[in-house]
Amino acid sequence: MAEGAHGGLPQRRSGWFAMVIAVGVILIVLGVWNAVDGLSALVAGDFVVADADRVIALQVAAWGWVLLALGVVEVVAGIALFIGARWARVVAVLVAGFNGVVQLAFLAAYPVGAVLIMIASALVIWTVIKHGDAARI
Known about the structure:
Elements: H1 17-44, E1 47-48, E2 58-59, H2 60-81, H3 86-102, H4 111-131
């Protein structure tokens, strides 16, 4: 239990507190995943091409910078969600939404990974919008 704001009786945390913390962890994992993908894309610097039926030609170096920056922002926002920062909730929704849209570009090349990231992004968005204030200190 957390102590009340004025030193009074302890206040009970919402049951959603743990879910908001879990979403912060998920956001950090997504951020690390994107940062690693971005770094590997910068090191490789080629094009991503799927099989002949589903050809995707992306300039990987450009996407590498986007994914690296997105990953860093996601990690910082995920950490800030732990303390209930209001700006972190806004940033978390924006980067999770952007991340979900970006994964559409990789859907043909990495269908399972892209769908898992889109589901995790949707979970982040729903939880932060619906119950984000549960982690507020």
